[in-house]
Structures are given as structure tokens and as C-alpha cells.
Amino acid sequence: MTSSELWTAETAERYDAEESESGTGMGSAAVLGPTLDFLAELAGDGRALEFAIGTGRVGVPLRARGVPVAGIELSEAMAAVLRRKADADTLPVTIGDMATTRVPGDFSLVYLVYNTISNLLTQAEQVECFRNAARHLSPGGRFVIELGLPPLRRLPPGQTAVPFDVSERHLGFDTFDLVEQILVSHHFTRDGEDGRYRRENSRHRYAWPAELDLMAELAGLELEQRVADWDGTPFGQDSEKHISVWRKPE
Questions:
Q1: How far is residue 187's CA from residue 127's CA, in Å, rounded to a whole number?
Q2: What residue stretches are annotated with the Methyltransferase domain (predicted)?
Q3: What CATH architecture applies to the domain 9-149+207-247?
């Protein structure tokens, strides 16, 4: 049993709209364009597998670009929203967790976007996620992860919370357990025009790039590149996230 928290039907129905409207803009063309360019180039003429494919924010348009895409998704409710966009023949989805679920065939690309590996709340499960990616990759194939870096340098002594979005409809902040490497994302979202706010939170296990590199090594993968965003900006000490690519040796 995975430690990931399960997305409910109610959350799945709101997910696409809220991601498009939030301060992150993850559903916008400006964000999706570079993401799809990056992934399509790595996939080449091969197949791509998205772990935790969700509602298909990335997988559906990547398939529309001509890349054969399959997905693994823990939440049946999220997969049901995806199914409205693409049928099972166009984009097959297997219900299961990304650490252990196996789908048929080999892939030139396995990818995890938008901090999703942090949904696995233990280091052991994250290691198994890398091993599962390696099992699916053909020789020379790549495993890609997009993951934010926890803003711990913004925490003065005694403070445990850092805001990441303060907008008219949404207030979001993270709180940190530095011992367990767990962050909790808190969301206060205004519903309608009556002034009422909906409160939600989700738990995540953050991991540093060096820790991920060790997980990759345990899975038999080698670091190929690390950049700060999908546009290829060099990764540095002030980067707020990274896109990392590991390669399965020939």
C-alpha cells in the first residue's frame, strides 16, 4: 500500500480549473509549451510513460504531438477526468501506485512532473519509484523528474511556514517538518462571491537533488542533465526547482 494521499472525486473535478487560475499557472500555455517541447525531444520516436498522470494536463497534449503516451494513476477519480479528454485506445491508463505498478512494454521516456514524486511520503517508496522507472525504460531511455526545492533559507529561527501564493482567490503556504522531510501545503481558496473560503492541505516528502541522484544510482540510472526549468536555464544555488534527467545505460 502506497503512502500517497488519494485525490477525491470532488478535488479531481476542480483540479484543472484551479491549476489554471492559481499563481503557479500550471495549466497555462506558457508553462505547458516548454514542458512538452522538453519531453517530446527526449521521447524521440519512442513511447512515453507518465507516472501519476492525473487529469492528463501534460499527457494528453503530449499525445496530441504524436508521442505515444501511457499513464499510471492512483486516483480513479483523476483518471476519470482524463478519460473525458482521451479514450483508452488513445491514452491507456493503469490504476495503481507509481512505486510498484507495472505496465506492458518498454519506454524511451518515463516522467514525473509538478513535484509528484513528493506524494510518496517515505524515502523507501521514492527509491522504489526510481526502480520502477528503470524497469520500464529501454536501454538508453530517460527518467525525468520536476521537483521544487524547499525554501528553507527563508525560514528564520522558530518559523515553520512559508507562503507560495497570495492572490485574490487563493492563499497558499507550506509548513515544514525538518526532521522527517515532510512539508504540508495549506490552501485557502475562495468559493464563489459570498466570501467563504475552502481549506485543504496535502502532505509531501521533499528530497534534495543529491538524494535523488543516490536513488537513481540504486536503480542503475545515471544523471544526464539538471536544469532549473523546462526552458533549460542553468541550475544554480538560487534555483527554486529543478528538472533532472537520468539515463538508463545501453
A1: 29
A2: 49-141
A3: 3-Layer(aba) Sandwich (3.40)
